[in-house]
Amino acid sequence: MGLVPHSPDRDDQDFPLLEALRLRGPADVVEWASRDSSIGAMSWPEVHHLDSHGAIRCGFRAFSRDSIRRWAEDPSDLHRSRREGLAAGPCPPDWLIIESRQRWMTSGVLVTEADAQAFEVVHHELAVIGVRLLDVMIFDDEAHWWSMGQLLSGGYVDEPALTWPTPVLRPPARGRASSRTRRRPPTR
Fold it and tell me: Which among 19, 22, 71, 102 is least buried, having the fewest CB atoms inside 10 angstroms?
């Protein structure tokens, strides 16, 4: 969708600490990525829980095997994060997923229709537990970014949006049980 701007004359020390960041839309995340070279280079996704002002209040760093596609198949880690966050104190219901992908680990195609479908599934799944998925932003190791929310909103996608987009989502698939009601095989 776009390229993360890189300005060598910027002083990274002027950029706010993580606690001081305010993420109000994809543009703020792209700006953060322009200052933090680990975004796009990490091998794990991060789930940030944002307050009403866009401040990161809690969240978790997932495993390298995790992705929006995997969570569409099994959202149990996201459910656990919500339960643990609420048990520890106030846990904001607005979530942002930042996923880094490296080109050398893929066949060269980083973002596909499968990501948009996974966004829809996870969006619906999280709504069941009182969470609003603001966006899933994917960054690669060549400084490209994609906003699943922007892609699904039908709006302009060449520049990052200033506010969280409102994706146009299909209704959840009929017959798909929520992970809260899905039976797991018994353990022995």
Answer: 19
pLDDT per residue as tens digits for the range 5-63: 765 544 455 666 777 889 999 999 999 998 888 898 888 999 999 999 999 999 999 99
Identify the CA nearest to 164 among candidates 128, 137, 130, 124.
Answer: 137
* pTM across the whole model: 0.85
Q: Which residues pair with 147 in a beta bridge?
A: 137
Which H or E run contains 94?
strand 94-101
CB atoms within 10 A of CB 118: 20
Terminal CA-CA length for the chain: 47
d(CA 10, CA 135): 27
In whole angstroms, give the CA distance from residue 115 to residue 45: 14
* pLDDT tens digits along 56-87: 999 999 998 899 999 999 999 999 999 999 99
Helix (H) or strand (E) holding 31: helix 26-35
Q: Which of 163, 60, 187, 170 lies closest to 123 in space, CA to CA?
A: 170
DSSP structural state of residue 12: G
